[in-house]
Amino acid sequence: MDTLIFGLLLAAALVVILVRTRWIVLTMFFVGFVAVGLLFLHHVTSVLDLSF
Amino acid sequence: MADTGKLTVFVGNTRYIVPEPKRRWHRIMGKLGFWAQVFFLVAYIGVLSTAMFYFQFAQAELPCPLCISQRMGMMLSSLGALFIVSHSLKRTLTPSGFMTGLGMAILGALLGSAMSTRQILLHILPGDPGYGTAMFGLHLYTWALISFIVVMTFAGVLLTFGTEFLPIPPVSKWARGLVWAIIVIFVATIAINMVVVFVEEGFNWFLPDNPTSYQLFGFTPTPVPTP
């Protein structure tokens, strides 16, 4: 999954450089953002034993 | 669209040429705005390369899943600077595009700071040695949080000025070539990270919590003892 997300970020970087249309750039950015966020949530496996 | 060398704004289907600022002070701020974004990219290229080439390869410390996700946060955040710098060079950056780039930088940094905060809290109890080697007394995830806070502050300060720091790109060939080279190096950094994480993860969906070997080859590196 990490490899695929890096691939997605690589595609997003190329779109950011080459494409001028802002909504396409933003769509790629948010797809990458959500993918990275979901990967992070997957790795949050326990509740911290701390008092806040 | 042909590069006319002029900043243009589209309102509907009408293209307007935006005159460059005449006042010397405004031109200086515009140039400062451009090179600040380039520095943003260079700084994260440096951070990502140090993490990979020094800590991962030279020190043989395998990055954990949270470390990898923080690298992704840095890349997401840098996409904002990449957008501003590349479109500024192509003279297609509008004031709204400038703010889009800064917004992307803030959102990426916000996500990255959530990840680094989580990792700091995992190791915050007294007696916990932390994950990996410390650099200048702080672990890499703590440095990552500091970098994300710096990015959010940087973008926030630029946004308070509105368009005063709207980048003015350089005109000299060597300066433009240098910035394009930095852009290529940034893209290459993402590509190299993709290959390296594939070697570490192999054909598994996720990395283990405490990786000890490169799963594609079954190779276990020997960590370099700290002096």
The fraction of residues in strands of chain A falls at under 5%
Strand composition percent of chain B: 5-15%
Work out the largest interface and the residue count of each chain. Answer: A-B, 30 and 44 residues
| Biggest pleated sheet of chain B | 2 strands, antiparallel
Order of helices and strands of chain B: EEHHHEEHH
Domain count of chain B: the total is 1
Radius of gyration of chain A: 15 Å
How many helices of chain B? The count is 5
Class of secondary structure makeup of chain B: mainly alpha
Which bin fits the share of residues in helices of chain B? 55-70%
Report helical residue fraction of chain A: over 70%
Mean pLDDT of chain A: 91
Uncertain segments of chain B: none
By oligomeric state, this entry counts as heterodimer
Give the tally of β-strands of chain B: 4
Count the DSSP helices of chain A.
2
Morphology call of chain A: elongated
Structural class of chain A: mainly alpha
Characterization of this structure:
The complex is a heterodimer of chains A (52) and B (227). Chain A is mainly alpha-helical and 52 residues long. Chain A has one domain. Chain A has helices at 2-18, 22-43. In chain A, helix 1 runs antiparallel to helix 2. The mean pLDDT of chain A is 91. Chain B is mostly helical. Chain B has one domain. Helices cover 61% and strands 6% of the residues of chain B. Chain B has helices spanning 24-58, 65-89, 95-122, 140-160, 173-201; strands at 7-11, 14-18, 134-135, 138-139. In chain B, the strands form 2 sheets. In chain B, strands 1-2 form a two-stranded antiparallel ribbon. In chain B, strand 1 and strand 2 (14-18) form a beta hairpin. In chain B, helix 2 runs parallel beside helix 4 (140-160) and helix 2 packs antiparallel against helix 5. The mean pLDDT of chain B is 87. The interface between A and B is large, with 30 and 44 residues.
